[in-house]
Design goal:
Blueprint (H helix, E strand, L loop, with lengths): L3 H24 L3 H34 L5 H24 L3 H33 L4 H13 L2
């Protein structure tokens, strides 16, 4: 059976791949492709955040009673990254590549640190505390992410 850690880590990699496409388009000087690729990355990342905040985190919190722990930190980081996602999108739309590159670098570092915390701490905790809920939870997460 697939674990929460494996499923959600795979989605992190999917988002990483979309981010790389945007970066490659920027490096190639193709502004329109960069805008499109970043748009796909942004939507996939927002869908990932939403699936965690609407489905995974509440299920984990209900089961463990931990509402002030790792899920609170992840929500705060999601809020920070949402701001960066919007700023990067706006910089690309305005044709300001230098601003985009600075924001994208900050976003990349933040995503890497955030994903490591989820993949090495939160997701294993979810697998440990939610074994009975995992099949239904994964089905819901898969549906939510597919709809994005």
């Amino acid at each position: 059976m697939t674990t929460i850690r494996t499923f959600m880590t795979d989605d992190h990699r999917h988002c990483d791949d979309l981010f790389a496409e945007a970066e490659q388009a920027i490096a190639a000087g193709n502004a329109q492709a960069a805008i499109a690729a970043f748009g796909h990355f942004r939507l996939a990342t927002l869908a990932h955040f939403d699936s965690e905040e609407k489905t995974l985190f509440p299920t984990f919190e209900a089961k463990t009673g931990m509402t002030m722990g790792p899920t609170q930190v992840m929500r705060m980081e999601h809020a920070q990254m949402r701001t960066l996602l919007d700023e990067a999108r706006d910089a690309l739309a305005a044709g300001n590549q230098d601003d985009y590159l600075g924001i994208a670098e900050t976003l990349l570092i933040m995503m890497q640190q955030h994903n490591m915390k989820e993949e090495n701490v939160l997701y294993p905790m979810c697998d440990q505390h939610l074994p009975g809920e995992t099949p239904e939870l994964l089905a819901r997460l898969e549906t939510e992410l597919a709809e994005s």
